[in-house]
Write a structure and sequence with these properties.
Length: 153
């Protein structure tokens, strides 16, 4: 037999509609929409609510439990995983930045790979070195090589 939703929602229907309209994050808006559908009486069963929102019944159960235990704040808090630890320790990052900004910098990312291997015994794939230097350190090696070449003329 389907499980009927038995929860007291503190917020008014109008307040939920306003929150839903103002929320730009999809994950949060689905959670607010769940409360709105329950409060308005449009959905009374967890299975129907799950199907309508595109989530599993266990996810709906989890959200309802979070709301009951901690209210709206708990329901809307979405944790992010910390990700993998950096492959570039602080001393390596500082040394690399210093070398990148020096007059005699690198010509290629392979040169950077060799430098990291020789100086720090850090063997990393080309793609990791490229992504780190280009996107984490915001250093454009091509632009730097062109500047050095133009300056030596």
């Amino acid at each position: 037999m389907p499980k009927k939703i038995d929860i007291q929602i503190k917020e008014s229907k109008a307040k939920l509609a306003e929150l839903l309209k103002d929320e730009w994050d999809k994950k949060r808006s689905h959670r607010i929409e769940m409360l709105y559908l329950i409060k308005s009486g449009e959905e009374n069963y967890k299975r129907n609510l799950a199907d309508r929102l595109g989530y599993s019944r266990t996810t709906i159960d989890e959200w309802l439990k979070r709301y009951e235990e901690g209210g709206m704040k708990s329901l809307l808090s979405i944790s992010k995983s910390p990700g993998a630890p950096t492959k570039f320790p602080k001393n390596v990052r500082q040394g690399l930045l210093k070398k990148l900004n020096s007059k005699h910098s690198f010509r290629t990312y392979v040169d950077i790979q060799r430098y990291l291997k020789d100086k720090y015994d850090l063997e990393l794939p080309y793609s990791t070195v490229h992504d780190y230097v280009r996107y984490q350190l915001n250093f454009d090696l091509k632009a730097n090589v062109k500047q050095v070449a133009a300056g030596s003329r």
